[in-house]
Amino acid sequence: MKLTIREIANLAGVSVTTVSQILNNKGSRFSDATKKKVLEIVEQYQYKPDFCDSNIITRQSQTVGMIVPDATDFFFSKVVEGVETYLNSLGYMILLCNSKHSSEKETQYVTELLHRSVDGIILATPNILPQDHILKQQPAFPVVLIDRGMNAREQGQLLVKEYEGAYQAVEYLVTQGHRHIGMLRETQGYYQLTERLAAYKAVLKKHGLPMNETYIQSGELTLKGGYRAAREVLKNSEITAIFCGNDEMAIGAYQAIEERNLRIPQDISVVGFDGLEVSGYLAPSLTTVYQPAFDIGYCAAKFLVEAIRGGGEKMPNRTFETTFIKRNSTRMIDNSRKK
C-alpha cells in the first residue's frame, strides 16, 4: 500500500508540514515522540517521497516545460541535452514538447504546461509572440526564450552572434577566390535565419559580387531540404561555393553535389552553420560555424532554475559567440576559373 504524505500525517495525528519537516531533517523543534511516531509509520509502509507530495509543501513540481520547434533537429537535440544535464543534476524533470514550427501548437503546449503546474518554461520559438499571448499575461512566471531575438524582452533571452558568424564564413569564401556563391536558406514557416541571410548579402554587396536570385534557394532545415535546395542552386553552372543555413542542409547538399558528378572541394566548396559533431566526420569534413548548442541549453536551464528559486529576481540575458571552423570542404580557387 502506497501512502501519501497527507495520509501519513493523518495516521500520526500531525500536520502535513510537520511530516515534511521531519522527513527533510528540519524537525528539531518537534518532540522525540512525534518524530518517532512519524518515522515508524514511514518505515512500516516503506514510504518514499514523491513530487506530488513535495508540491503540497513547496508549491513547486520540480518539473520544467520545454518547447522546441523540431525535436528531431540536430541543433535542438543538443540544446535539450544541455537543459537535461543541468536540470537532472538538481532533481528536476523536463516535459519536452515538439511544436513542429506551429504557433498554434506552441500556444496549446504552453497552456497545457501551465495547467500541469510546471515551475518554469524554456521556449525555443520561431514565432513572434502576440501581445495577448498567455505568457505575456503572466509576467512573474519564469520563462527563458531562445528565439533569435524575434521577441523584445528585457530578461531571460539567449542570443547567438549569428550575423558575425555567417559574415566570417562568407568572407572566408571570398578570400578563397570564390565570386559566385550560393546560399541555402530556410523555407517559410521554419526557424528564420534572418541574420545569416543578411550577412551573406552584406558580404556580397561589400565585394561587388553577383547576387542572382537563383543563387539563394529555400528548403526545410533538414537533410532533404538541403538536398533539394542545393539541386536548384547547382543549376547555376558558375557556382563554386555554397553557404548553407545549417549543417543538416550542408549534409544534404553533399548528396546533390555528388549526383552531379562534382567533387567537394575541388569543384564546389561547402560551408555549414551549427558545428554539429557529425560535421567533423563527413568526407570531406565540413567547414562550418560552431554555435554552442549544449551551452545554450545548459545556460537556459541554469537561468530558469535561479529564477524559480530566487523569488522574483530579474533573469539575466546572454549572448553567445560563434567560432569559425575551417576543415576540408573548402579550398582556394583561381579567380579566373569562373566568372
Please tell me about this protein's structure.
The chain has 339 residues and is α/β, with parallel strands linked by helices. It is built from 11 helices and 12 strands. It has helices at 5-12, 16-23, 32-44, 51-58, 74-89, 103-115, 162-175, 194-206, 223-233, 247-259, 293-310, and strands at 63-68, 93-98, 120-124, 143-146, 158-160, 181-186, 216-219, 241-244, 269-271, 288-290, 318-320, 323-325. Helix 7 packs parallel to helix 8 (194-206) and helix 9 packs across helix 10. The longest helix has 18 residues, at 293-310. The protein is elongated.
Structure, briefly:
By secondary structure, the chain is α/β, with parallel strands linked by helices. The chain is 40% helix and 15% strand.
List the helices and strands and how they pair.
Blueprint: H1 5-12, H2 16-23, H3 32-44, H4 51-58, E1 63-68, H5 74-89, E2 93-98, H6 103-115, E3 120-124, E4 143-146, E5 158-160, H7 162-175, E6 181-186, H8 194-206, E7 216-219, H9 223-233, E8 241-244, H10 247-259, E9 269-271, E10 288-290, H11 293-310, E11 318-320, E12 323-325
Parallel strand pairs: 1-2, 1-3, 3-4, 5-11, 6-7, 6-8, 8-9
Antiparallel strand pairs: 10-12
